Amino acid sequence: DTTGRFIGGKLNQMWGQPVVADNRPGAGGSVASDLVAKSPPDGYTILVNSSGVVITPSLMKLGYDPHKDLIPVSMAFISPGVMVVHPSLPVKNVKELIGFAKKRPNELFYSSSGQGSAQHLSMALFCQMTGLQMTHVPYKGTAPSVLDLIAGRVAVTVASVVSTRPHFTTGKLRALATVGNKRTPALPEYPTVAESGVPGFGVDQWYALFLPGGTNKEIVTKLQEAISKIVLEPQTRKMMLAQGMDSVGNTQAEFQAIYNGEIARWGKVVKSLGLQPN
Questions:
Q1: Are 201 and 56 in contact (CB under 8 A)?
Q2: Are 124 and 136 in contact (CB under 8 A)?
Q3: What are the pLDDT digits (tens) for 88-115?
Q4: For residue 93, what are the contacts with CB-CB under 8 A and spacing of at least 6?
Q5: Residue 229 half-sphere exposure, CB side, CA atoms within 13 Å?
Q6: Helices (H) and strands (E) in the chain, counts
Q7: H or E segment at 150?
């Protein structure tokens, strides 16, 4: 919602055209996705959604085809994730966490913002790639997940810089690494999980814009170029970095490849966990 309103306001200034934000929460963002997927492909209805849009096709039966009925236009921002542990754990980096957890199969608990959430699947993928056995504890949202980690009821979680930085900078939590595909300018001193001994691991949580399938290519290009210009403005980059966010503004082709690859990747993870579509 915040991303949509910000970009909408900028588009209003750029094009002199009013942009109305219509918040349609529910079902992991698929309520809004369904509405846009079934809207006329005239460029006047735009979807702003999170990276959860690449997970929901594996978790629930959708009323639209995510490959045919939505056109990925551009990724606007990445919200970098951080792997954090309770400070009582005698580990200071990812390698030490792996070594510690391997000696204690199923003894460590990790929290997430909910079953099938990006946080859950990120930690599940981490466990699969490292051969770790940890127990998942789902919560109703990121805040209670992080609060129970601070209280020591769980050992580790993955959450955004925004929701964790106030706690690991004060010693209530310990940050081990960032979980994205590359280091984030928001925390340049922290290595990625991949750099820390798990090559190939990388999970980006992002906010992006989509148009209905069948939208004219010229319209798609016009919107992509506008988004890129908005998010890569020095003032915007500085403002978002202060909030723990990285500006992207990639091309339609680049984002299309990421979108398709992520749907396939999370589909395999969801299937391996035995999570059935609702």
A1: no
A2: yes
A3: 999 999 999 999 999 999 999 999 999 9
A4: 176, 177, 191, 196
A5: 11
A6: 10, 9
A7: helix 142-150
**Terminal C-alpha separation, the chain:** 25
Contact 157, 151 (CB under 8 A): no
Extended strands (E) in 43-148: 47-50, 70-78, 81-85, 109-112, 135-138
Measured distance CA(18)–CA(36) in Å, rounded: 18
Instruction: Please give the pLDDT value at position 204.
Output: 94
User: Is the pLDDT confidence value at 136 over 90?
Assistant: yes
Over residues 31-37, mean pLDDT: 94
| Nearest 10 degrees: Cα torsion 116, 172, 244, 155 | -20
Backbone angle region of 261, left / alpha / beta, with phi > 0 → left and psi within -120 to 50 → alpha: alpha
pLDDT at 278: 64
User: Which pLDDT score, from 0 to 100, does residue 122 have?
Assistant: 97
Nearest partner of 243 among 195, 171, 184, judged by Cα: 184
Query: How far is Cα 55 from Cα 274, in angstroms, rounded to an integer?
Result: 14
Does the global pTM surpass 0.90? yes
Is residue 28's pLDDT more than 90? no
With residue 2 as reference, give the H or E element that holds it.
helix 2-15
Q: Which residue, among 273, 189, 208, 232, has the nearest Cα to 70 in the 3D structure?
A: 208
In percent, how much of the chain has pLDDT > 90? 92
Q: Which pair of structure tokens corresponds to residue 159?
A: 């959450």
Cα–Cα distance list, 64 to 28, 33, 35, 191, 216 (Å) = 14, 8, 9, 39, 19
